[in-house]
Design goal:
By secondary structure, the protein is α+β, with helices and mostly antiparallel strands. The protein has five helices and 15 strands. Strands 1, 2, 3, 5, 6, 7, 8, 10, 11, 12, 13, 14 and 15 form a 13-stranded mixed sheet that branches. The longest helix is centred in the N-terminal third of the chain and has 23 residues. The radius of gyration is 20 Å and the shape is globular. Pfam families: Peptidase_M23. InterPro entries: Cell_wall_metabolism_enzyme, Dup_hybrid_motif, M23ase_b-sheet_dom. Keywords: Membrane, Transmembrane, Transmembrane helix.
Amino acid sequence: MTRARGLLAVLAKRHGLLFPAGALCILVNGRGFGPLWFTGVALVAVNLVLGAFLTFRQRPKGEREPVLLPVSLTGRLMAVNGPGTKVPSHTHGNAQTYAVDLLFTPAEDDDSAQAAPPSARFRPLARRPDAYPTFGTPLPAPVDGTVVAVSEGQRDHLTRTSLPGMVYLYLEGYVRGAGHPRRVFGNHVVLDVGDGVHAVFAHLRRDSVRVSAGDRVTAGQQLAECGNSGNSSEPHLHFQLMDGPDLALARGVPFAWRYRDDDGAEHVGVPEDFTHFTPVPEVPGTEDGARREADEPAG
């Protein structure tokens, strides 16, 4: 039974290919309800069933204490689409149950940093990614670990922050979701941080990744730069923990950070969406900010 479920999971990882194949059969069918039409419908149906199975399989089992570790970026940041507001924060698919998006947001009085351009409903339809302060921000490893997977080479596309751009983003996201997870995550690095926990850093800048699979990295070592590759509306860092190295099969793992809000108050958890905060770099009671179990739940 276990072997059969494992085989089904492997097939489910490639289920996205069935949808375009089925849609093509339906579109080119010119003889009404014939064998080609039924084949197309069957392929689309199997795609939906396998997709639902894979998402259900990636739902975390039971409660788990958040893993406390340093924030992956430095400076003044803002959390979006994070578990501090809702769980799942993204979706259970691709182990994104507790994922969070981080943007670099320098203070208004920081003349040394580039400010993000204002939001626009219609014009401009898109902007170059280098117009945003997060683009090109160095990404250091939060803790010691071993690189288990690297995906790079995808372009940093124009932003999709206008209303037409967001519509395009959702349509594009559906197409990307039908393929390999790397089409969604863009350029990314998967880091084994120990105890069966793996960290994912996604939407990285093309040609900025400085590590390879098998490399042993230390806390603070630069992995890459933040970019706008994959299914991304604007430059940001997508971060998540999971219980295995495979994005399509692992389950999400909750995490917590120590951070300071704009009022100067310190917290342990994950900031709510649109909260501006500054990471507290070291965790008291640990060696060099090493990872340990959090005393408080995320959020």
